[in-house]
Design brief:
11 strands; 14 helices; Helicase, Ruva Protein, domain 3; five-stranded parallel β-sheet; globular; alpha/beta; Rossmann fold; 2 domains
Length: 322
């Protein structure tokens, strides 16, 4: 089995257990291939937690879920040094961040110190306790979730910290037909839980994941498309050339991290489609999830009902596609 076939088998496996959220399934796989982290936002009950759990079942990794609460401490994530009275020494006890796959559930419920500890680990791939630095696993993916319905008792992630996420994905309610399939799947799983079934083996090994990442990086992008990609990101910082209305709405545009993320994700999407080259559609398809959390609009935009998504849509429509 080729690496692409193995990754597509994983995508099929996840889609069989996560109904009505194909966009989320695809973004999870792309984040895995692009070696980045995912911020997922949506109302409760839309399989956000379930999606990352199913991904953990499908790949060779150690999975851990962290429920973020206001009383959480940074050491609850990173680990801490434990005193050993028998010899008077301290021994480092690793925290849950030392797993390959981490679910940060309701990340906006934790205070700023805890959020900073998580996002530092995401960016640096290491944790420093005292005088010692501990490396995180080579395969390390964090999926953080946010509930947009409740604002009481939450701490909004600052824009500078949001920039550490590869993509910001919005999930919505499934259709009536998809919900009927969800109901049937829930019945099947309830019946299966009453019977002792053998555990499902990993579909994708870590070596296959690293091999897929190397293949993704070798996907060809023409100079013309690279220029188009750069124009998209740079235009968010100074959109005056594409309309005075756009210039009057923006406070801050996307950082160079957006350029790197859009490049990696566009290549990953092309590779998943079985192509050895990036097309304009790959860039256009990935741009909203890459830019959504990296664009800061001003009060005038908010007063006119403008969102980061609508701003991105208007901007992309005015940039000529090569």
């Amino acid at each position: 089995m080729t690496t692409l076939n193995a990754v597509n088998a994983l995508r099929t496996f996840i889609a069989e257990h996560i109904i009505g959220q194909q966009h989320l399934v695809d973004r999870l796989v792309i984040a895995l291939l692009a070696d980045g982290h995912l911020l997922v936002e949506g109302p409760p009950g839309l399989a956000k937690t379930r999606a990352i759990k199913v991904l953990g079942q499908g790949i060779e990794c150690a999975f851990h879920r962290i429920q973020f609460t206001p009383d959480l401490l940074p050491a609850d994530l990173t680990g801490t040094e434990i005193y050993r009275p028998q010899d008077g020494s301290f021994k480092f006890q690793p925290g849950p961040l030392f797993h390959q796959l981490v679910l940060a559930d309701e990340v906006n419920r934790a205070p700023a110190k805890v959020q900073s500890a998580l996002l530092e680990a995401m960016a640096e791939r290491q944790i420093t306790i005292g005088r010692e630095t501990h490396l995180l696993p080579e395969l390390f993916l964090v999926m953080a979730t946010q509930n947009p319905l409740e604002q009481e008792g939450t701490y909004a992630l600052p824009e500078a910290q949001l920039d550490r996420f590869l993509m910001h994905v919005i999930v919505t309610y499934p259709s009536a037909e998809e919900e009927r399939r969800i109901l049937n799947l829930a019945k099947q799983e309830a019946l299966a839980a009453m019977v002792s079934l053998p555990a499902v083996g990993a579909i994708l090994s870590q070596e296959q994941i690293f091999s897929a990442r190397r293949e993704v990086l070798n996907v060809y992008m023409s100079d013309m498309l690279e220029k188009y990609l750069l124009e998209i990101v740079c235009s968010t910082r100074d959109p005056a050339n594409y309309g005075r209305d756009l210039a009057s709405w923006i406070s801050y545009g996307a950082s160079p991290r957006a350029t790197i993320a859009l490049d990696r994700c566009a290549r990953a999407r092309a590779w998943l489609a079985g192509r050895a080259f990036v097309s304009p559609e790959d860039i256009l398809e990935m741009a909203p999830d890459i830019l959504r959390h990296r664009i800061v609009l001003n009060y005038e935009a908010a007063a006119e009902g403008m969102t980061a998504d609508s701003f991105t849509t208007a901007l992309l429509s005015r940039i000529p596609v090569p």
